[in-house]
Amino acid sequence: MVEEEQTAEVTQEEPMAVEQPADVKQTESTSDSESNTKYQNAAEKGKMDLGFVDIEQMREKFSKLLLGEDMSGGGKGVSSALALSNAITNLAASVFGEQHKLGPMKEDSKKRWRKEVDWLLSVTDHIVEFVPVQHTARDGSNMEIMVTKQRKDLLMNIPALKKLDKMLTDCLDNFKDQKEFWYVSKDANESEKGVQRSDKWWLPTVKVPPGGLPEESRKWMQKQKDCANQVLKASMAINAEVLGEMEIPENYIDTLPKHGRDSLGDVTYKSITVEFFDPGQFLASMDLTSEHKILDLKNKMEASIVIWKRKMHQKESRSSWGSSAKLERRELFEERAETILLLIKQQFPGLPQSSLDICKIESNRDVGHAVLESYSRVLESLANTVMNRIEDVLYADDLAQDSANNTKSPAPDQTPGNTHNGTPSSTTISDIIGWGSDQGETEMIDDFSDNRLMEERADNKVTRKPPTILTNHIWKS
C-alpha cells in the first residue's frame, strides 16, 4: 500500500511552480538568478550570515512554488507534481545553460545546483509506503506490524540519479587543466577559426594542434565520452521506465484517430505491416533529415501503439478465431512500432519530448514520478550535450590527422592510376577485374569525405547523432 505522508510539515515543503507545459521560460530563470545574486551581495556586504541567506532563499523559492502560476493566491495554481517537475527543469536551465565548452562548472554554480536540487529532492523523503516487519513485544511474543519506508522506486532511483549527477560533474571537472585543444570565438577572423561539426553557428569553434591530438589524449577523450555515454544510457532507462508507469491521460486519448492506419498514414502503415519487416531498413527509407520530421514520426508511432493496445484490451475477451487472428496481427504491429520507437530514442537522444510524454507530465499527479522523470531528464540532456562537445573535439582531431596524412601522401604524378598532370587515367582491364583494388582502397582512404562516411557507417554506437540535426535541451520540453 503506497501512501504519501500528509503532514503539516510536508505541506509547507511541497512546492507549487509556475506552470510551463514542458518549456522553460527564460523569465523565471532570470528571476531566480537575480534573487540568488541579491542574497549573495547582501552576504558579502556583511548584512546577512550565510546560514540566514540559505533560509531566506529557500523560503522565497518554496513560497513561489506554493503559489503556482496564480500569484494572487487564489488557489488556481498547478499540481505539486508539475510544480516540482518545472522547478527542477528551470533550475537546470539556469545553472547549466547550453554548455558551450568542455570545462568545469563555476564553483558558485556547482554549489547552487547541489544545494537547490537537494531542497527539491527532499520532498521524496516523505513519500512512503507501509511494509510489514516482525516486532518482538516486551513479553517475548512476536507480531507483525506495519511501518513506513520510503517508496521502493524512489529508494532505488534517487541515489542512482545522484551518483549519475556526480559522475557527470566529475567528467566536466576532468577538463580543468587540459591544454590539448582550445576554443575560438565565433566572431574571430576566418583564418583563426577552428572546426565546427554541426551547423550550430553560435557555438565557439574547436582548434587542435596541426597534427591532431596525441594518442594518449585521444584515448583519454574517448574514455570521457564513454563515461558520459554511460550516464546518458542510465538516465534514459530511468526516464523511460518512469514515463511508462504514468497513466495515459484521457485528453490525449480523445485526440487519437480510430485506427492505427489513420495515425501512421498509408505509406508508413504498409511499410510496418509487410510480411518480412526490418526496422533498420524501415528507418533508412524514412525522411529523417530534420528534427521536426523525426519527432513527427515518433508521435505517430506512439499514437499507433496506444490505439492498438486499447483495441487489444477491449477485445481480449472475445474468443472467436477471427478476433484472435486480428489480435495477433495487432500485437505484431505494436511490437514493430515499439522497436522503431526504441531505435529512434537511441539514435536521437536529444529530441524534444513527444506529445504523449508532455501530456503525461502535465496530467501526472504522482510527486515521486514527477521528481524522477524531471531529474533523469535533465541529466540525460546534460550527458547528451557533453557527448556532443566531446565529439566536436574528436571531429576536429580527425580533420587535423587527415590533413597531416594528405600532406605526407605521394605527389599526384607518382600516384598509381594518375597521369603526370595529376588527372585520373582511363579505366583499364586490371581495374575492371580488380587487380588494382589495393590502390583503389588507398585512394579511397586518402579521400577525406569517403573516409568520414566509412567511419560513420562503421560506428555502431546508437547514441551518435547525425550532425545536421539540432538537438534541443530538456528545459524547452
Give the key terms.
about 475 residues; 18 helices; mainly alpha; two-stranded antiparallel sheet; Methane Monooxygenase Hydroxylase, Chain G, domain 1
Task: Give an account of the 3D structure.
59% of the residues lie in helices and 6% in strands. The protein is mainly alpha-helical and 477 residues long. The chain folds into two domains: 2-230 and 375-397, Methane Monooxygenase Hydroxylase, Chain G, domain 1 (Up-down Bundle); 247-363, Up-down Bundle (Methane Monooxygenase Hydroxylase, Chain G, domain 1). The strands form two sheets. The chain has a three-stranded antiparallel sheet with strand order 1-2-3. Strands 4-5 form a two-stranded antiparallel ribbon. Helix 11 packs across helix 13 (321-347). The longest helix has 42 residues, at 367-408. The relative contact order is 0.12.
- Rg value: 28 Å
Measured by DSSP, the beta-strand proportion falls in 5-15%
CATH A-level architecture of the largest domain: Up-down Bundle
| Strand order in the largest sheet | 1-2-3
**What is the N-to-C order of secondary-structure elements (H for helix, E for strand)?**
EHHHHHEEHEEHHHHHHHHHHHH
Report the end-to-end length measured between terminal Cα atoms.
33 Å
Q: Give the structural class.
A: mainly alpha
CATH superfamily of the largest domain: PRONE domain, subdomain 1
Number of domains: 2
